[in-house]
């Protein structure tokens, strides 16, 4: 009788009794049955009930969402340490320039054509007397108002900046 109750034999018997349950723990629980159409109670086995509780517990769902948020923040924090490059450009095509009507003949008056000297002015100057010369003006042109366009056909600006932020990301 002593040989039957040896520790080795007891260990093998215990191992044989535990092996089927260990194998069951490795298999996935069966699919959950659909809820009854009238909103009644679902009949679940113990592994199905545990699986259902794990999937639908609100605190576990909140923990999973917090984990996803934390993973997303890791990328945000890493990017805060990288250089930031900002480039901008704009171009405006002023396809219709502003125009004003200007009468240029009003600005200068008649053109100067020089000074007329007569023979008497020359003789007086040779005799040593003072001679007053007066300018001679021609006829002022009458052009009338002329359209004058002003402004730039194309206008634009560009900007670029590179910075490295050494502070931490905003919380």
UniProtKB/TrEMBL annotation:
Signal peptide from the UniProt entry: 1-24
Keywords for this protein: Signal
SUPFAM superfamilies named among the record's database cross-references? Outer membrane efflux proteins (OEP) (SSF56954)
Signal among the record's keywords? yes
Top-level taxonomic group: Bacteria
Q: What is this protein called?
A: TolC family protein
């Amino acid at each position: 009788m002593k040989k039957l109750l040896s520790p080795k034999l007891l260990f093998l018997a215990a191992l044989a009794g535990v092996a089927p349950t260990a194998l069951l723990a490795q298999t996935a629980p069966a699919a959950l049955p659909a809820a009854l159409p009238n909103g009644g109670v679902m009949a679940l086995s113990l592994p199905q009930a545990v699986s259902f509780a794990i999937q639908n517990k609100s605190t576990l769902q909140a923990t999973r969402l917090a984990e996803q948020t934390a993973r997303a923040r890791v990328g945000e924090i890493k990017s805060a340490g990288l250089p930031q490059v900002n480039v901008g450009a704009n171009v405006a095509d002023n396809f219709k320039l502003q125009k004003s009507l200007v009468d240029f003949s009003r600005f200068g008056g008649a053109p100067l054509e020089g000074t007329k000297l007569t023979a008497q002015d020359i003789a007086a100057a040779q005799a040593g007397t003072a001679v007053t010369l007066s300018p001679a003006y021609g006829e002022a042109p009458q052009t009338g108002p002329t359209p004058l366009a002003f402004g730039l056909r194309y206008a634009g600006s560009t900007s670029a900046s590179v910075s490295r932020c050494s502070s931490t990301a905003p919380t």
